[in-house]
Amino acid sequence: MTLQIRPLGPFIGAKVDGIDLREPLTPAQAEAIHDGMDRHAVLVFHDQPVTNEQHLAFTQALGPLENTAKNTLRAAEDFRLPPMFADVSNLDGNNQPFGRDDRKRLFAIGNRLWHSDSSFKAIPAKYSLLRAVRVPSKGGNTEFAHMGAAYEALDNDTRALIEPLICEHSQMFSRDLIGFREFSAEERERFKPVRQRLVRTLARTGRKSLYLSSHAGTILGWQLPEARLLLRDLAEHATQREFVYSHKWRVNDLVMWDNRQAMHRGRPFPVEEARDVRRTTISGDVPTVAQAEEEAAAA
Ligand code: OGA
Ligand code: MN
Questions:
Q1: pLDDT tens across 216-264, in order?
Q2: CB-count burial class (<10 Å; 0-12, 13-18, 19+) for 274
Q3: Using CA positions, which residue lies closest to atom 1 of ligand 1?
């Protein structure tokens, strides 16, 4: 079986065939996948009936796991999956959909805003790998926008303006956008903002991308209204349809994306239906602000 990677559109996304994710990954396959991620930012694998253990093994063959335990309001009684999985489903510990007004659900649907996973962590995520176990009868697509293509479509003045900027990211900023504002003292401490540069460079390709996320809430040294307006303008620019791939889920799909070069968002689906999607995450290796400081020192 030889691995084939075919683009799904002009800017973002490709479909991968000729691989069985239940089998151990060979070094050549791993290299082809990293290369495909660099080029397309999103890779789609259909018809992969893997177990949680096989999903984890595939992930670990590509890089170190990120611990996502603190990204959620789920408590022990809601855990359905092995540690190191992010449970992105709408299901509680008894596999029942959360009620419409459940606080854990209302926090979780913040992922329907465009974002990059773990941009609220000092060392943010590299890849996310999301697998569908149950899908709703309608809705529930995941959309992806290419932040390298969006950067390249900016005019020179905007590129120069944003090059040195550093933002603060927190899950409290993204939730604020949808009116979810009640946090306990413990949650406020857990969700303390971290700094990320607004333009980042992908080490392997040298390609620059806009590092946007709805978690971004401030720009250091800027007044808040101007900062929020710039971030909003950039996000509107970056999520124009031409830069977007919309994934319609089938059971046994595994979709993998590069959080350094793509934003994504979930789309709504009927609240009473089950949508069981499970995510592993590969951690990044450096804080984006360290990269900014190194470049400034070298200049
Ligand atoms: C995620 C995410 C959106 C969705 O898994 O990180 O944002 O459509 N998912 O489930
Ligand atoms: Mn996400």
A1: 999 999 999 999 999 999 999 999 999 999 999 999 999 999 999 999 9
A2: middle
A3: 88
Q: Which of 257, 187, 215, 253 is nearest to 111 (CA)?
A: 215
Instruction: Evaluate if pTM is beyond 0.70.
Output: yes
Query: Is the C-beta atom of 111 inside 6 A of ligand 1?
Result: yes
Q: Please check whether residue 117 is in contact with residue 255, taking contact to mean a CB–CB distance below 8 angstroms.
A: no
Question: From the CA of 267, how far away is ligand 1's center (Å)?
Answer: 9
Write the DSSP symbol of residue 205.
Answer: T
Residue with CA nearest ligand 1 atom 9:
266
With a 6 Å cutoff on the Cβ, whether 129 touches ligand 1 is no
Full set of structural domains in the chain with CATH? 4-298 (3.60.130.10)
Q: Answer yes or no: is pLDDT of 299 > 60.
A: no
Measured from the CA of 112, which atom of ligand 1 is nearest?
A: 3
